Amino acid sequence: MFLQLNGIECITERSGTKGLEILRKENFDLVLLDMAIPDFSGIQIFDALREEGTVAEKNIIIFTASLIDQKETDRLLREGAKGIVHKPLAIEDLEQMVKIHLMK
After folding, report:
1. Which of 18, 69, 90, 100 has its C-alpha lying 20 to 30 A from 84's C-alpha?
2. What is the model's pTM?
3. How far apart are CA 91 and CA 39, in angstroms?
4. Using CA atoms, how far apart are residues 54 and 46, in angstroms rounded to an integer?
């Protein structure tokens, strides 16, 4: 809702499998990828895109409510994630990320 109110067109998908299909077909300026997705985790989606060699061309920000260790954080960032954000997320943090990645 925040993105739409700020004039940013966005789509959402609750199914990890469908989300991965969409990411394979479409190009987006920014991908907000939650780690906790029914039927296929955000990490699985990220790893599938990495294996296909398409992570580098996507601005992927990973959202997580769970604690991930520093080793996993470093891996995700090294392999192409543009950021990892822990939930709950303040609107100000989301606004800053959008400015950084969309309004360059």
Report:
1. 18
2. 0.84
3. 28
4. 9
Q: Which residue from 62, 68, 73, 2 is spatially nearest to 32, judged by alpha carbons? A: 62
CA dist 39 and 14 (Å) reads 9
Return the structure tokens found at 2: 């925040």
| Residue pair 62/76 in contact by the 8 Å Cβ criterion | yes
What are 64-76's pLDDT values in tens digits? 887 778 898 899 9
13-39 pLDDT tens trace: 989 999 999 999 998 988 999 988 878
The DSSP symbol for 23 reads H
Domain boundaries, the chain: 2-102
CA distance 16 to 34: 9
End-to-end CA distance of the chain: 22
Does the domain spanning 2-102 belong to CATH 3.40.50.2300? yes
